[in-house]
Amino acid sequence: MLNIFNEFKEFALKGNVVDMAVGIIIGGAFGTIVQSLVKDVIMPPIGLLLGGVDFSDIKIPLRSAGPGHDAVTMNVGLFLNNVISFLIVAAAVFALVKAINELRKRVEKPAPKAPTGPPPTEVYLKEIRDALVKK
């Protein structure tokens, strides 16, 4: 049992697992911010431009409320809000990954190539010099 605990501890403390956990926590917080951005900042002006429509109120009724049961609706507006939230998060993650890849390219410069020998003109000049010295 102690061996399994030690293996789990070694796994959990690896850098990748800790990085993943931090990413999930920050991603959750970022998702909340984006959700508020879409719901509270982006959608109200769009709804206003479309005649005062509140997207969260767009619903397709499937069954009206009656005695003993609630109304059943398809919440198309909420789905639209979630799609817009997803697109914003996807664009932000894309921009972040692209920036990180560019930074890596700048930091990880390729190793200089080993010299392959003197250029051909230098070789020819040495041959001419050697031929002149022999005369």
Count up the domains: 1
**Radius of gyration, whole Å:** 32 Å
Name the CATH superfamily assignment. Large-conductance mechanosensitive channel, MscL, domain 1
Query: What oligomeric arrangement do these chains adopt?
Result: single chain
The low-pLDDT segments are none
Give the SSE layout.
Elements: H1 2-12, H2 15-49, E1 60-63, E2 72-74, H3 76-107, H4 120-134
Antiparallel strand pairs: 1-2
Helix pairs in contact: 2-3
Description:
The protein is mainly alpha-helical. The chain has one domain (2-134): Non-ribosomal Peptide Synthetase Peptidyl Carrier Protein, Chain A. The protein contains four helices and two strands. The chain has helices at 2-12, 15-49, 76-107, 120-134; strands spanning 60-63, 72-74. The chain has a two-stranded antiparallel sheet with strand order 1-2. A hairpin with an 8-residue loop joins strand 1 and strand 2 (72-74). The chain is elongated, with a radius of gyration of 32 Å. The mean pLDDT is 82.
What would a concise description of this structure say?
The chain has 135 residues and is mainly alpha-helical. It has one domain (2-134): Large-conductance mechanosensitive channel, MscL, domain 1 (Non-ribosomal Peptide Synthetase Peptidyl Carrier Protein, Chain A).
Task: Write a concise keyword list for the protein shown above.
single chain; 135 residues; mainly alpha; Non-ribosomal Peptide Synthetase Peptidyl Carrier Protein, Chain A; two-stranded antiparallel sheet; elongated
